[in-house]
Amino acid sequence: MEVPSPLEASANVAILASVYLARRNSVHTWWTGMAAVVLFALFFYDLKLYADVVLQVFFFGTCVYGWWAWTRGGAGGEELPISTLSPRQRLAALGAIAAAVLFFGTVFSRFTDAALPYPDSFILGGSVVAQLLMMRRIRDHWPIWIAVDVVAVIVYATKGAFLTAGVYAVLLALCVQGILEWRRLYAAQGVAPAELVSTPSGAA
């Protein structure tokens, strides 16, 4: 088995820290996430997983915004509360992921030498939607991350990135814990879902 590079190892340490902090609903998830995405962008470029490289650029910008939103994005510039999506919004999120897979998968398969373009594009589309929800502290991001992590484990193992595949398996377990923890925190707020998702200041 090939020894993981220092770049791969560093990226995985950073992403583990970021997701662990997200599970704890900690704002520090954002700066650790920024470090992780820079390292992963370089790593995925070497693997010719170009959809993942694009994804890291997106992640960096959302980390900056998410850091601000969690601390000052609530009503009156207060901390943003946890919220949830309506059934219609969940369907829209799934539709956006499917559209991203079809579009990017087709582009990367036809015009680049990308490896595994459609599974890689699912990682891209699912991660974008999940990250947008996470930026606004909407708890529905956790099930999407779980699906992304399952596909990521398979893709990265196929490409021989066994350390990254193993780390994503750990991230999968953290996401399951995140669902449970955020469900508890959401219930503790004592605010009805409709009240939160109806106004931009209450989204999470």
UniProtKB/TrEMBL annotation:
Which terms does the record give in the GO molecular function aspect?
nicotinamide riboside transmembrane transporter activity
The record's section on Pfam families has: NMN_transporter (PF04973)
Q: Which InterPro entries does the entry link to?
A: NMN_transpt_PnuC
What's the protein's topology in the membrane?
A: Multi-pass membrane protein
The entry's protein name is Nicotinamide riboside transporter PnuC
Q: Which residues cross the membrane?
A: 29-47, 53-70, 91-109, 115-134, 163-180
Keyword flag Transmembrane: yes
Q: Record's GO cellular component, any one?
A: plasma membrane
Spell out the subcellular localization from the entry.
Answer: Cell membrane
Q: Which keywords annotate this record? A: Cell membrane, Membrane, Transmembrane, Transmembrane helix, Transport
Primary localisation category: membrane
